Amino acid sequence: MAYQNIYVDREGPLAIITVNRPKSLNALNSQTLRELTQAVRDNADQRALILTGAGDKAFVAGADISEMAPMTPWSAREFSELGHVVTALLEDIPCATIAAVNGYALGGGLELAVACDMIFASENARLGLPEVSLGVTPGFGGTQRLVRLVGKLRAKEMIFTAEMIDARTALDIGLVNAVLPPDRLLAHCKQVAEKIATRGPLAVARAKRLVERGYDMPLRAANRQEAESFALLFDTEDRREGMRAFIEKRSPRFTGK
Question: Which domains can be identified in the chain, with CATH numbers?
Fold first, then answer.
């Protein structure tokens, strides 16, 4: 697929996907959502994936209002489904996903970020779900994932008021992992991604799946699922290599088998 609104860079085991619509602050239209979905699918075999926005003003400043304004309920449902496909994909792919939030992450932009495994923000980041100020609700999973990250009280305040919060507030409420100077943001995300890339990819994929699927399960059922995954990994070459390397006091060479 030839991309018009994003670009993808591969650096060894890492993939960096950049939303590239700076004139519209990287707003998400249908074409961009389709391109993101394809790019995430095409890079799911990487060890880690970083999602960011072009320029220093915006990660993604929301959905494209000029495309949304004339939508009917039917076309709005189709647009919402496009957002749900890509956000669910970010949660489901086996590699770790990292959002590098470099500026505005509003509406669909914040919904993309909270679907990632980790969020790192620049000091100039502003985050929010402003949809109710347009007379609609968040449409790409924001009402569900934000609650799971920051709790109902904080999530309701952000959603009902439609107010943005700054990066430090986002850090305080547990919405982002860390806040970095703008010129250090991407380098820090790459450093974290490179560290993840040295770990056992099958183990990372299983751990991600356990966290995501176990979150809403009863604790005992989730723990049974964990024990099963733990046992299954003992039949992999990566497990044998990892433990051999530990005993031999060397770095492991994981192959994903």
Answer: 6-197 (3.90.226.10), 201-247 (1.10.12)
Tell me if residue 78 is catalytic. Answer: no
Residues 48, 93: contact at Cβ < 8 Å?
Answer: no
Q: How far apart are CA 66 and CA 27, in angstroms?
A: 10
The single residue of 67, 91, 111, 241 carrying the catalytic annotation is: 111
Strand extents, DSSP E, 81-138: 96-101, 104-106, 118-122, 126-128
Which residues share a beta bridge with 28? 63
**Look-up: residue for tokens 């699922």?**
225
Six-digit token pair at 227? 């024990």
Q: Select which of 35, 67, 131, 241 is catalytic.
A: 131
Kind and range of the H or E element at 165? strand 165-166
Overall average pLDDT of the 168-173 stretch = 98
Q: For residue 170, what are the contacts with CB-CB under 8 A and spacing of at least 6?
A: 121, 125, 127, 176, 179
pTM, rounded to two decimals? 0.95
Could you confirm whether 163 is annotated as catalytic?
Answer: no
Residue 1 has pLDDT above 90, yes or no: no
